[in-house]
Design brief:
Strand content: 15-25%
Number of domains: 3
Number of strands: 11
Structural class: alpha/beta
Shape: globular
CATH class of the largest domain: Alpha Beta
CATH architecture of the largest domain: 3-Layer(aba) Sandwich
Helix content: 25-40%
CATH topology of the largest domain: Rossmann fold
Order of helices and strands: HHHHHHHEHEEEEHEHEEHHEHEE
Length: 377
């Protein structure tokens, strides 16, 4: 069997047997681990076909096979052997020319466009699904010179802006650095969500609660930004996540005041009052779906309403712990109005807080994630 035809058939098999229970990257790794016949080039080509499919899966096609072929045509410049003569002739054309040939619209790449925030450009955001975002690192304080020297020594091309390093997504960071100690794997815009912190005033040894901490990225970011002592309290609803968070803090040499489980979907009474609450709320993750396009494929409209309601519960159950005059940072990695602007209005209507700042950190034209942040006091 011709090799690229076998790649196509394997991609069909993988996609048909995938139900979204785990990230597709993990799913395909497990498949390759149990099927040793695939070499590195085979794995790379099959993975490309699968991820291209998820990037364009909302476009019409008569079959899964046709959908994969169309996706490869739109997302790559390669002249695949299973192409028709027309596709072969257009393989090196621009994306606009390819879409015109197929009579497709780029904004159809994203099936939930009607729920996008008015701040998000539908065409530009949808078009970003055709490309994998870059890998971003944040250099931790004191390691700038060492990190740059490692890239130079290994002849790895990179771009740097302040402490933010941009790399191709294929770079294996763990083989180069002590992750969390020297560098943090963190998207370009995730590194910016606390920028407004420089404009606020907090007392010495202030108390901060990272109430939906997950892996603790925002807490590490805050620890690197603040040059004086403060008390860090960290919580999440998932005990398994807190175990990983403790290990990550150990690697990052960060000692929080307290790490504890808190289910903020239910009424919660805090024994502490905080000067700053960081609420990086659970959300659809739609601002990151260019990295994991399979998530759009399995997302349902009802899930958006569920997330919006959960966010309101978390807001309502965390805000009573905010000191008068304190600051509340509401953050999501979503591009949906229901998860962002609607919740800003909810906070303004139900709590004695003033909106100081809100913005979308738009990554869809920069091969980065898109995040939303709103700051209240």
């Amino acid at each position: 069997m011709e090799r690229q035809e076998s790649y196509l058939q394997t991609a069909e098999k993988l996609i048909a047997g995938y139900y979204g229970k785990m990230p597709f990257s993990n799913y395909i790794k497990l498949y390759f681990a149990s099927n040793k016949k695939f070499g590195s080039r085979d794995r790379r080509q099959i993975s490309t076909l699968c991820f291209c499919f998820f990037r364009t899966s909302n476009l019409p096609a008569k079959s899964l096979r046709e959908s994969i072929i169309i996706s490869a045509f739109l997302c790559t410049d390669e002249k695949w052997s299973f192409y028709s003569d027309v596709f072969l002739n257009y393989a090196n054309k621009t994306t606009d020319e390819k879409f015109a040939l197929l009579n497709y619209s780029k904004d159809d790449l994203f099936k939930f466009k009607n729920f996008l925030s008015p701040e998000i450009d539908k065409i530009k955001y949808s078009s970003s699904y055709l490309n994998q975002p870059n890998l971003y690192l944040r250099i931790r304080p004191g390691f700038n010179r060492k990190v740059i020297s490692v890239f130079e020594k290994n002849n790895i091309g990179f771009e740097i802006e302040n402490d933010c390093i941009s790399l191709p997504p294929s770079i294996k960071v763990q083989e180069l650095f002590s992750v969390n100690k020297e560098v943090v794997v963190q998207d370009k815009n995730s590194q910016k969500v606390l920028d407004y912190f420089s404009k606020i005033q907090l007392p010495l040894n202030f108390k901060v609660w990272d109430c939906c901490a997950a892996s603790g990225g925002k807490s590490i970011l805050l620890s690197d930004k603040v040059k004086y002592k403060f008390q860090l309290f960290v919580s999440d609803v998932r005990q398994s996540i807190l175990i990983k968070l403790k290990q990550r803090f150990k690697e990052a040499v960060i000692q929080p005041q307290k790490i504890f489980a808190a289910d903020l979907s239910k009424p919660y009474r805090s024994n502490e009052k905080y000067d700053l609450i960081i609420c990086d709320a659970p959300c659809s993750g739609s601002g990151t779906w260019q990295r994991t396009p399979e998530q759009q494929y399995f997302f349902k409209e009802k899930m958006l309403n569920d997330y919006s309601q959960l966010q309101k519960h978390i807001i309502s159950n965390s805000l009573p712990a905010l000191k008068k005059g304190g600051f509340f940072f509401y953050i999501t990695c979503s591009v949906f109005e229901k998860e962002n602007e609607e919740n800003v209005k909810y906070i303004e209507s139900n709590f004695d807080l003033k909106l100081l700042h809100k913005e979308y950190l738009k990554g869809y034209m920069q091969k980065a994630d898109t995040l939303f942040v709103a700051i209240f006091s």
